[in-house]
């Protein structure tokens, strides 16, 4: 199979032929239709987050079931499916608590070593040498995914664009629904209107936020944010703290969501909240990045700082799919660019250069002549 292989920090992705992987007990082989282009992959490519090489990145996929491993029930060959980037083991303490966003095996095996939960990868070069997996290694024609993370797509959802349900939409859902606990009437600021920020805006609107202020340095992203549900937009260069407080009667917002992952955007989010407000941190920062916040203000003003890595795969993905299938969210409008697998490296160069306003997808499955993909 073809795969875009990450061979080293700051080196371009290389299209290689790898062996088609085999699913083991409780696993599913998916023929990948599309894979989302996420900034977290870029962190790995730039060395901001350590990960073994060679590896296949890409962690939000949609596709069709190609093969079932032993002991997999409830799925069948050919079904249209989607997978989230957090692949729960289902057996660790956190998974049993219903907090599979904190799955111990996902972090210790996959995120640190590029392995699945038997301590092995499923990807190999033709010479038998291992290739490590970032989540399921979605930038390839086939991917092995634990059955705990395979969800059948409703007919109403297009196959290729569904890929971003597994991270951009999924991560934003977790930040809004759980960490921020947004309720009807809340005022919200979203700092950084990229793929996750745009979908956080949409979820905030869906769950009843009365006022949603999007903040970014790019007017094109702010225009898209308005389409996704932002009631006001503010450019970072225009004194956003003063502007947001003026928009909220001088108090600040109930909830500020930081969706980039930098000390500067965190500090901005902290300055935007009212007394008793909540700062939800979603963006992944470079390893070692920290920032200061005045502890006296946190205590006296009763601020809440909540981290949010993702949603809860087994319980939240079905609800996300229901929202998408019934048209209660329109995540597709956040997709602003598409690439082929051979163009995967170009996609990440564009992402690094801030040339992608929302979310991009890589269409992995080759289009047959005369056969359009679902959303063409």
From TrEMBL:
What does the record give as cofactor?
Zn(2+)
Keyword Zinc part of the UniProt annotation: yes
Check the record and name the Gene3D superfamilies matching this protein: Medium-chain alcohol dehydrogenases, catalytic domain, NAD(P)-binding Rossmann-like Domain
Q: Which UniProt keywords apply?
A: Metal-binding, Oxidoreductase, Zinc
This protein's source sits in the domain of life called: Bacteria
Instruction: Give start and end of each Enoyl reductase (ER) domain.
Output: 8-362
Q: Which InterPro entries does UniProt cross-reference here?
A: ADH-like_C, ADH-like_N, ADH_Zn_CS, ER, GroES-like_sf, NAD(P)-bd_dom_sf
- What molecular function terms (GO) are annotated for this protein? oxidoreductase activity; zinc ion binding
Q: Which Pfam families match?
A: ADH_N, ADH_zinc_N
Q: Which family does it belong to?
A: Belongs to the zinc-containing alcohol dehydrogenase family.
Kindly provide the name given to this protein in its UniProt entry: Alcohol dehydrogenase
Q: Which species is listed as the source?
A: Sulfoacidibacillus thermotolerans
Q: What is the lineage of its organism?
A: Bacteria, Bacillati, Bacillota, Bacilli, Bacillales
């Amino acid at each position: 199979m073809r795969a875009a292989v990450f061979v080293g920090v700051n080196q371009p992705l290389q299209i290689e032929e790898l062996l088609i992987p085999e699913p083991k007990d409780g696993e599913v082989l998916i023929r990948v239709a599309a894979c989302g282009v996420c900034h977290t992959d870029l962190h790995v490519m730039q060395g901001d987050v350590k990960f073994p090489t060679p590896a296949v990145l890409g962690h939000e996929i949609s596709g069709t079931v190609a093969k079932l491993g032993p002991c997999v029930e409830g799925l069948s060959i050919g079904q249209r499916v989607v997978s989230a980037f957090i692949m729960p083991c289902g057996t660790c303490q956190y998974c049993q608590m219903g907090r599979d966003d904190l799955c111990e095996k996902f972090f210790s095996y996959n995120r640190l070593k590029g392995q699945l939960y038997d301590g092995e990868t499923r990807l190999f070069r033709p010479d038998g040498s291992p290739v490590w997996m970032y989540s399921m290694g979605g930038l390839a024609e086939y991917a092995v995914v634990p059955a705990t993370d395979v969800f059948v797509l409703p007919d109403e959802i297009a196959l290729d664009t569904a890929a971003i349900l597994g991270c951009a939409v999924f991560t934003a859902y977790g930040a809004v629904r759980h960490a921020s606990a947004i309720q009807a009437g809340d005022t919200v600021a979203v700092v950084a209107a990229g793929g996750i920020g745009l979908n956080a805006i949409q979820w905030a609107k869906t769950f009843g936020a009365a006022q949603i202020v999007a903040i970014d340095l790019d007017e094109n992203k702010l225009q898209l944010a308005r389409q996704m549900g932002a009631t006001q937009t503010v450019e970072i260069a225009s004194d956003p703290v003063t502007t947001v407080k003026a928009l909220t009667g001088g108090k600040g917002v109930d909830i500020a969501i930081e969706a980039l992952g930098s000390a500067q955007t965190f500090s901005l989010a902290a300055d935007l909240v009212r007394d008793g407000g909540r700062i939800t941190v979603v963006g992944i920062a470079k390893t070692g990045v920290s920032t200061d916040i005045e502890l006296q203000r946190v205590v006296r003003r009763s601020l809440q700082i909540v981290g949010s890595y993702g949603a809860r795969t087994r319980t939240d993905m079905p609800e996300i799919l229901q929202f998408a299938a019934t048209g209660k969210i329109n995540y597709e409008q956040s997709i602003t660019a598409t690439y082929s697998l051979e163009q995967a490296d170009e996609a990440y160069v564009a992402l690094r250069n801030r040339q992608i306003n929302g979310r991009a997808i890589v269409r992995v499955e080759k289009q047959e002549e005369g056969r359009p993909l679902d959303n063409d």
